[in-house]
Amino acid sequence: QVQLVESGGGLVQAGGSLRLSCVASGSIFSIFSIYDMSWYRQGPGKQRELVATKTSGGTTNYADSVKGRFTISRDNAKNTVYLQMNSLKPEDTAVYYCNALRAGLNAWGQGTQVTVSS
């Protein structure tokens, strides 16, 4: 069974910080390090968008809207990917989803809500 479970969302004031976590479980993740891991988000009335990616090779990419504020990291020993979000803005309000990608697998978590109040 493939499972990605996000946590760490919540309500925060503008300028605040949150750290999201996503734990991957299931036999297919026995070698977690081979997967490209990403965070996506979907705001109210918006399409899902890519926020950040940490590839299996260590390459990191960010959406322009979060560069300098968000940091993606991963702990392969714990099958976990993180998203540190600083200087949060109301426009960061969204459901944040974890994604694991490799040939033959495209898995999603259930999402965690982040709400930033002004």
Alpha-carbon distance between the termini?
A: 40 Å
State the order of secondary-structure elements, H for helix, E for strand.
Answer: EEEEEEEEEEE
Question: Structural class of the helices, strands and pairings?
Answer: mainly beta
Let me know the largest β-sheet.
7 strands, mixed
DSSP helix count? 0
Tell how many strands the DSSP assignment holds: 11
Unreliable residue runs = none
- Fraction of residues in helix: under 10%
Our estimate of the beta-strand percent is over 45%
Overall pLDDT score: 96
Shape call: globular
Gyration radius over CA: 14 Å
What's this model, at a glance?
The chain has 118 residues and is an all-beta fold.
Structural notes for this entry:
- This protein is mainly beta and 118 residues long.
- It has no helices and eleven strands.
- It has strands at residues 3-7, 10-13, 18-25, 36-42, 49-54, 60-62, 70-75, 80-85, 94-102, 105-108, 112-117.
- The strands form two sheets. Strands 2, 4, 5, 6, 9, 10 and 11 form a seven-stranded mixed beta sheet that branches. A four-stranded antiparallel beta sheet has the order 1-3-8-7, with no helix packed on it.
- A hairpin with a 4-residue loop joins strand 7 (70-75) and strand 8 (80-85).
- The relative contact order is 0.32.
- The model has no long low-confidence stretch (mean pLDDT 96).
